[in-house]
């Protein structure tokens, strides 16, 4: 676009130029394009509902569902931002989040989706979402993004939890709040680490993130308690194998195990240095999925893992057990791993 | 009549100074023979390109920054199925270096695991780490190889530089048009044989196989196969000679037309060499066609002279009278061929223009060799008494055959013939609708499926995600466009939607690479594989990519989207191009234009469109030339129609045959239809010109046709059958292209002959209703 600025319309011009100066005009949500290859595009999360329906989300607003793990349908989705996580509370109600702080909602088991939030101006992605019932949900994301809903996503409120910073940062922010409210607002939007993943056990929430970030909430995220870091790299997933027996995974093949509710952690050695993206548990077996096709299995409660390469060496972001198989979501889309016949 | 006076003068001059004429021809032939021996096979990439096509404007415009489309892929495969061993890496490095130094290779564009531009980035706790995939301190031991394997995975080059199953590694190179060290054009065929000697022969072992594909290699293989073409020419010539001997019953009369036709070929080749042309491997069949057309006219000449000798004339008078009788019909037939071929010059593809010149030159010299030299030579022949007596007896059997055959010139039989012809024409028209533009098969259609080249193509397509079949959509936009989220997003959307088009295997662009880099900046987390909306992050992501990647120019105002295709079949290309044009309208605007196209498949798409656009005009021009020359010489619309209609039916049937043989219309097959007209027009003109005087004198049609058959029919029938037998041996050729052409030409020789002796008189029966 070119603007011819005459003196008379100078002010108009300034207004017109302003969004350009920011680098983009305020974008409107665009519906995802239906694509033959949606099930082979980059997928980032997958869930299986109680009625055996699979729902997976991924890049370009792709949401696909299947009732047999073989034939996939692409749902109509009102955004084409990359989606990063999906959560279903029952057979019908589910939410997916992603870039541009997008939140979409389905009330029909993932076949159709409505837009609940689209905020490209934040320039931050949401990275995970959980619900404890059809009304109360929590979405987290980059730079400490945290949104809460009490009405099934009709409205989402942003929350900042100062208690999720270390003490120095808390002091610094409190100081700023009085002295320089503008800078305070700016810092608030950038000072938090990325919140990568939530694990919910009833009202108990475990949250891991960037640079060893780890916090616990016992009231579904109303109040948080920062935990001492046991690793300085980023953590991408955490799971409770039993009530006091937790596993956390992260960058470059790092695995940590606690047997005392997080008081002390021991590092588990893995033969691979690929970043681990997700923990999947099936009965007593623990699986890990990671970049470079990493697929690791532990039959001894996470004390030791044996690794192999799946998905042609491409990143495996997550997986769900389905019948006798494992359905993986990867850079190449859906991949099926036969659990009975380890490669 | 002035034409008669001219012919008289020419005749007088020629036969009065026979010795001088012969001396001139001998000198000319010697000189041109000398020149002809210097002719070389000549193949170039750019002459196969329709440079005036809009896609090629885009191609030429960006050739400097982004390289051409003349790619060479060298894939090295380890027999064990795993490349990670010391021996393989040593071989790969040496092959890479060898290829780098072959003259004509664009050194900047040589890419393999060993090129310094092949890098990886990885995420570590405190940020980024990266380096060349093969580190400077690389030692090919177990640890070193394991590290390279890891780097290969991190670099995301599996499927491009390393096969999907790690059984092969790829070296990618581009061939320049001009060698910068010598400033001379790169000789494609020479280059191909260098590849064979210095790459394949030197580095292929029991453990490591080498697979080379690309235009230059394909042309090289075709040229290699074309050497075998000469053997088939020799066989065809031998068969023709034996047949002519049976036909004429005289060794001398056999030698002369064959020799004159060969002299025509020598003159053609010599003249080409004189004007600085070579022979393109795809035009290698043209000299044989010249020979064939020469034989056709030569046989008419010996037939006519022989008949006159039989009737008691001496050789000189007989030759002189044959000359006078045949100069006009022969000349008209050859001139219309010449003009018809010359019209191919209007098609703006270099190689077709070359063919136009090669073929028209060849046909034009037949006028000299077979209409002038041949009768002059024959005037020296001493016919034995025995020959004269035998010839004078005639052949009552043949006359009986001609009598039966002449029945087609009566209305009841003619009606049946015309109904059958009409039905055939309708069927052929319907079938010819299926004629596809471009290559119908994967690999090189000029070569057999089991040829090394095509097997190599299949292997590479099978094991790698890339082939030489890629098309570049050039995104022409504003300077620093790679810092604009909106533009980068559109590039990414374009690429993704194109990847979803059937036939597109994968795609790559600055946008898609920047997304991966952005994920890299975010600890390798693929959830961050997006184009950042804020300018700093976007710059950070795209600035990692260097211009040597071929994904952007210096100020990123031009960014290609590379789409790798499964093959270059005509339908794949047209589907991809149609979809790209649609998306270009949807996603492009005045500032950001998605321009078609570059890359080998882009060039092919343009060529297909140019061929498709040229198809109709070419037919119009060729037929226009034939019609005008027939009208001028016969001064009769009816006679012209009687000659042209059977030709057109045969053209249509030839196109139908091409669809049945699964031959697509390409730069190399497009002129075949025109050549077919050239072959066929001779027959019709000889027969009609023989009848025209009788028709004017109101001789009954059947009678007139019977006389024409006796005078020239045997020569027509004989020529058609002889040449058809000669070319039918081509089905055994090592070159698929020659096999296809052999079948097509056999068909054209035979069916054009049938058209001239069956359909033409049937038409005449209705065109001249008063000649009862």
TrEMBL record, chain A:
<dbReference type="InterPro" id="IPR015943">
    <property type="entry name" value="WD40/YVTN_repeat-like_dom_sf"/>
</dbReference>
<keyword id="KW-0602">Photosynthesis</keyword>
<keyword id="KW-0732">Signal</keyword>
<protein>
    <submittedName>
        <fullName>YCF48-related protein</fullName>
    </submittedName>
</protein>
<feature type="domain" description="Photosynthesis system II assembly factor Ycf48/Hcf136-like">
    <location>
        <begin position="120"/>
        <end position="173"/>
    </location>
</feature>
<feature type="domain" description="Photosynthesis system II assembly factor Ycf48/Hcf136-like">
    <location>
        <begin position="70"/>
        <end position="119"/>
    </location>
</feature>
<keyword id="KW-0604">Photosystem II</keyword>
<dbReference type="InterPro" id="IPR028203">
    <property type="entry name" value="PSII_CF48-like_dom"/>
</dbReference>
<dbReference type="InterPro" id="IPR036278">
    <property type="entry name" value="Sialidase_sf"/>
</dbReference>
<dbReference type="Pfam" id="PF14870">
    <property type="entry name" value="PSII_BNR"/>
</dbReference>
<feature type="signal peptide">
    <location>
        <begin position="1"/>
        <end position="25"/>
    </location>
</feature>
From TrEMBL, chain B:
<keyword id="KW-0472">Membrane</keyword>
<keyword id="KW-0812">Transmembrane</keyword>
<feature type="transmembrane region" description="Helical">
    <location>
        <begin position="259"/>
        <end position="279"/>
    </location>
</feature>
<feature type="transmembrane region" description="Helical">
    <location>
        <begin position="641"/>
        <end position="664"/>
    </location>
</feature>
<feature type="transmembrane region" description="Helical">
    <location>
        <begin position="670"/>
        <end position="692"/>
    </location>
</feature>
<protein>
    <submittedName>
        <fullName>MMPL family transporter</fullName>
    </submittedName>
</protein>
<feature type="transmembrane region" description="Helical">
    <location>
        <begin position="12"/>
        <end position="34"/>
    </location>
</feature>
<dbReference type="InterPro" id="IPR050545">
    <property type="entry name" value="Mycobact_MmpL"/>
</dbReference>
<feature type="transmembrane region" description="Helical">
    <location>
        <begin position="326"/>
        <end position="347"/>
    </location>
</feature>
<keyword id="KW-1003">Cell membrane</keyword>
<feature type="domain" description="SSD">
    <location>
        <begin position="642"/>
        <end position="766"/>
    </location>
</feature>
<feature type="transmembrane region" description="Helical">
    <location>
        <begin position="713"/>
        <end position="735"/>
    </location>
</feature>
<keyword id="KW-1133">Transmembrane helix</keyword>
<feature type="transmembrane region" description="Helical">
    <location>
        <begin position="285"/>
        <end position="305"/>
    </location>
</feature>
<feature type="transmembrane region" description="Helical">
    <location>
        <begin position="413"/>
        <end position="430"/>
    </location>
</feature>
<feature type="domain" description="SSD">
    <location>
        <begin position="221"/>
        <end position="380"/>
    </location>
</feature>
<feature type="transmembrane region" description="Helical">
    <location>
        <begin position="359"/>
        <end position="381"/>
    </location>
</feature>
<dbReference type="Pfam" id="PF03176">
    <property type="entry name" value="MMPL"/>
</dbReference>
<feature type="transmembrane region" description="Helical">
    <location>
        <begin position="618"/>
        <end position="634"/>
    </location>
</feature>
<dbReference type="InterPro" id="IPR000731">
    <property type="entry name" value="SSD"/>
</dbReference>
<feature type="transmembrane region" description="Helical">
    <location>
        <begin position="741"/>
        <end position="768"/>
    </location>
</feature>
<dbReference type="InterPro" id="IPR004869">
    <property type="entry name" value="MMPL_dom"/>
</dbReference>
């Amino acid at each position: 676009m070119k603007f011819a600025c005459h003196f008379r319309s100078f002010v108009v011009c300034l207004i017109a130029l302003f969004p350009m100066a920011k680098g983009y005009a305020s974008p409107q949500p665009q519906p995802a394009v239906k694509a033959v290859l949606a099930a082979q595009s980059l997928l980032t999360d997958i869930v299986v509902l109680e009625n055996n329906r699979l729902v997976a989300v991924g890049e370009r607003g792709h949401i696909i569902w299947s009732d047999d793990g073989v034939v996939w349908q692409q749902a109509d989705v009102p955004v084409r931002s990359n989606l990063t996580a999906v959560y279903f509370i029952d057979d019908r109600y589910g939410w997916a989040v992603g870039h541009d702080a997008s939140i979409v909602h389905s009330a029909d088991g993932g076949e159709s989706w409505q837009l609940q939030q689209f905020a490209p101006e934040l320039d931050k992605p949401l990275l995970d979402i959980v619900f404890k019932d059809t009304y109360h949900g929590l979405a987290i994301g980059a730079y400490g993004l945290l949104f809460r809903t009490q009405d099934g996503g009709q409205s989402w409120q942003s929350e900042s939890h100062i208690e999720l910073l270390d003490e120095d940062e808390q002091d610094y922010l409190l100081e700023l709040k009085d002295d320089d409210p503008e800078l305070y607002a700016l810092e608030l939007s950038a000072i938090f680490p990325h919140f990568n993943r939530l694990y919910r056990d009833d009202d108990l929430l475990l949250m891991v993130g960037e640079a060893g970030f780890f916090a616990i909430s016992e009231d579904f995220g109303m109040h948080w308690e920062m935990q001492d870091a046991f690793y300085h790299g980023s953590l991408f997933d955490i799971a409770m194998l039993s009530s006091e027996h937790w596993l956390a995974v992260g960058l470059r093949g790092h695995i940590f195990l606690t047997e005392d509710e997080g008081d002390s952690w021991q590092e588990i050695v893995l033969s691979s240095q690929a970043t681990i993206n997700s923990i999947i548990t099936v009965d007593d077996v623990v699986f890990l999925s990671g970049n470079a096709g990493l697929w690791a299995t532990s039959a001894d409660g996470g004390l030791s893992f044996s690794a192999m390469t799946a998905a042609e060496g491409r990143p495996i972001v997550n997986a769900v057990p389905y019948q006798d198989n494992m359905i993986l979501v990867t850079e190449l889309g859906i991949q099926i791993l036969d659990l009975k016949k380890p490669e | 009549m002035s034409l008669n006076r001219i012919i008289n003068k020419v005749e007088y001059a020629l036969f009065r100074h026979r010795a001088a004429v012969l001396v001139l021809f001998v000198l000319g032939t010697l000189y041109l023979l000398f020149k002809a021996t210097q002719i070389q096979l000549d193949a170039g990439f750019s002459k196969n390109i329709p440079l005036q096509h809009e896609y090629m404007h885009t191609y030429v415009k960006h050739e400097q920054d982004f390289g051409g489309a003349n790619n060479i892929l060298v894939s090295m495969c380890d027999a064990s199925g795993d490349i990670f061993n010391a021996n393989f890496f040593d071989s790969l490095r040496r092959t890479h270096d060898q290829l780098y130094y072959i003259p004509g290779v664009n050194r900047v564009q040589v890419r393999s695991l060993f090129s310094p531009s092949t890098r990886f980035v990885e995420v570590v706790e405190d940020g980024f780490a990266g380096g060349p995939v093969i580190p400077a301190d690389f030692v090919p031991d177990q640890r070193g190889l394991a590290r390279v394997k890891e780097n290969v995975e991190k670099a995301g080059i599996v499927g491009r530089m390393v096969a999907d199953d790690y059984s092969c590694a790829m070296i990618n190179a581009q061939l320049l048009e001009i060698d910068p060290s010598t400033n001379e054009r790169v000789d494609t065929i020479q280059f191909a044989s260098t590849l064979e000697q210095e790459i394949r022969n030197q580095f292929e072992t029991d453990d490591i196989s080498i697979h080379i594909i690309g235009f230059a290699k394909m042309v090289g293989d075709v040229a290699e196969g074309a050497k075998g073409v000469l053997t088939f020419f020799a066989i065809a010539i031998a068969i023709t000679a034996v047949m002519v001997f049976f036909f004429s019953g005289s060794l001398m009369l056999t030698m002369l037309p064959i020799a004159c036709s060969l002299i025509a070929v020598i003159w053609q080749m010599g003249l080409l060499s004189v004007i600085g042309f070579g022979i393109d491997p795809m035009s290698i069949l043209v000299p044989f066609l010249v020979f064939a057309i020469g034989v056709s006219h030569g046989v008419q000449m010996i037939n006519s002279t022989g008949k006159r000798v039989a009737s008691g004339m001496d050789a000189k008078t007989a030759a002189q009278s044959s000359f006078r009788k045949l100069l006009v019909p022969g000349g008209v037939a050859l001139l219309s061929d010449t003009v018809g071929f010359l019209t191919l010059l209007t098609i703006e593809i270099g190689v077709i223009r070359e063919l136009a010149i090669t073929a028209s030159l060849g046909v034009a010299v037949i006028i000299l060799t077979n209409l002038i030299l041949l009768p002059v030579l024959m005037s020296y022949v001493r016919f034995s008494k025995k020959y004269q007596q035998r010839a004078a007896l005639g052949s009552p059997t043949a006359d009986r055959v001609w009598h039966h055959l002449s029945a087609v010139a009566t209305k009841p039989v003619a009606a049946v013939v015309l109904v059958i012809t009409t039905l055939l024409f309708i069927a052929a028209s319907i079938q010819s609708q299926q004629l596809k533009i471009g290559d119908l098969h994967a690999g090189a259609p000029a070569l057999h499926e089991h040829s090394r080249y095509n097997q190599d193509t299949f292997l590479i397509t099978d094991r790698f995600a890339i082939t030489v079949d890629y098309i570049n959509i050039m995104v022409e936009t504003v300077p620093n466009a790679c810092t604009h989220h909106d533009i980068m997003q559109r590039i990414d959307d374009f690429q993704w939607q194109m990847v979803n088009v059937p036939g597109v295997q994968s795609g790559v662009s600055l946008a898609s690479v920047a997304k991966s880099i952005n994920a890299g900046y975010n600890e390798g987390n693929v959830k961050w594989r997006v184009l950042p909306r804020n300018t700093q992050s976007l710059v950070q992501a795209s600035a990692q990519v260097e211009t040597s990647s071929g994904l952007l120019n210096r100020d990123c105002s031009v960014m290609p989207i590379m789409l790798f295709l499964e093959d270059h079949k005509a339908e794949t290309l047209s589907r991809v191009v149609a979809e790209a044009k649609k998306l270009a309208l949807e996603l492009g605007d005045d500032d950001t234009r998605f321009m078609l196209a570059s890359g080998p498949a882009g060039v092919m798409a343009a060529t297909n469109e140019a061929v498709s656009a040229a198809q109709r005009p070419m037919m119009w021009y060729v037929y226009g030339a034939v019609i005008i020359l027939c009208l001028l010489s016969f001064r009769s619309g009816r006679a012209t129609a009687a000659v042209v209609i059977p030709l057109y039916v045969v053209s249509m049937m030839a196109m139908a045959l091409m669809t049945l043989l699964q031959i697509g219309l390409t730069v190399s097959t497009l002129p075949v239809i025109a050549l077919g007209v050239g072959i066929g027009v001779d027959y019709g003109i000889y027969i009609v010109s023989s009848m025209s005087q009788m028709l004017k004198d109101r001789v009954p049609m059947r009678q007139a046709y019977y006389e024409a058959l006796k005078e020239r029919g045997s020569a027509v029938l004989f020529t058609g059958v002889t040449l058809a037998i000669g070319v039918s041996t081509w089905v055994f050729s090592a070159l698929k292209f020659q096999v296809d052409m052999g079948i097509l030409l056999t068909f054209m020789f035979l069916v054009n002959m049938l058209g001239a002796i069956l359909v033409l008189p049937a038409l005449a029966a209705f065109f001249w209703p008063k000649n009862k």
